[in-house]
# Entry
Amino acid sequence: MRVTEDEFETLVQRAMDQLPPEFAELLENIVVIVEDEPEPELLREMGMDEADDLLGLYFGVPLAERETAYSALPDQVVLYRFPLVRASRNRRELIREVRDTLVHELGHHFGLSDEEMPY
# Structure
């Protein structure tokens, strides 16, 4: 399946737009970025092989760990386009994978561990 960068970014924006309002309101100082692939060095740092598909990643300080006077550059959620496309057999699956990965990475922003998340 081929998905252009613009098409993929539209899927990400739709996933963001579909977040429940009470959830979306809490997403201050966070940016969602689309990259094609994770850097090989990043995968090595995470103990992953280059053949492993990392779908997304959260960079930042979870809300629960912040001091009251916290101020920093925006936290980032990075979604990796090509691994997400590879993980999907069709467009419907891709839409679900994008949504699930976005929600998963935003869960880290709220302080949830991988084990605490539904996906």
